[in-house]
Specification:
Length: 166
């Protein structure tokens, strides 16, 4: 559809716009993948405007680094194609930051060096979640490098032999 009389310049078109990766987390490079064309065959330049959580960003290229934001925060890009004379209709895509993995900062068994048979061993675990989610810890115990049937953060040493490695 010409913008004006026959032979007049036509506006470029953005045929496709998607964001990759599909499930970004903080630190990922989020890329706008775009396909644009000009009906007149002229060169097309695409500009990008980014918003994170509704706030405009200074980045204008086809990619940004996902900042440290809470899960579910929307990231939006608006792409506009230009042939130097006319611009396309802006096309927008939004994606949401996905849940981030928690980090286990330490896990220690107490008492540390030795234990008398019949006493219990207890694991003290510390971790953080960048999204502020409540952490739940799951434990798997091994004795002499073999899994044993035990649940929770404590293990009774009753039934173990001197020299067993937990």
């Amino acid at each position: 559809m010409p913008d004006g009389p026959a032979g007049a310049n036509q506006r470029p078109l953005i045929e496709h716009l998607r964001l990759e990766p599909a499930e970004p987390v903080a630190g990922d490079v989020l890329r706008a993948v775009v396909r644009a064309r000009d009906p007149d065959g002229e060169a097309v330049e695409v500009t990008f405007d980014w918003e994170v959580g509704g706030m405009p960003r200074s980045e204008t290229g086809r990619s940004i680094e996902v900042p440290r934001v809470r899960k579910g925060t929307p990231i939006e890009v608006t792409a506009t194609a230009s042939d130097g004379i006319a611009e396309s209709e802006p096309v927008r895509r939004e994606i949401r930051v996905r849940n981030q993995r928690p980090t286990l900062s330490q896990a220690r068994i107490e008492p540390w060096e030795t234990v008398d048979l019949g006493e219990s061993l207890t694991v003290r675990a510390d971790g953080t979640d960048p999204d502020g989610d409540l952490l739940a810890y799951h434990y798997r115990w091994r004795v002499n490098d073999r899994p044993i049937a035990a649940e929770g953060a404590s293990l009774s040493t009753a039934g173990l032999a001197p020299g067993d490695l937990v």
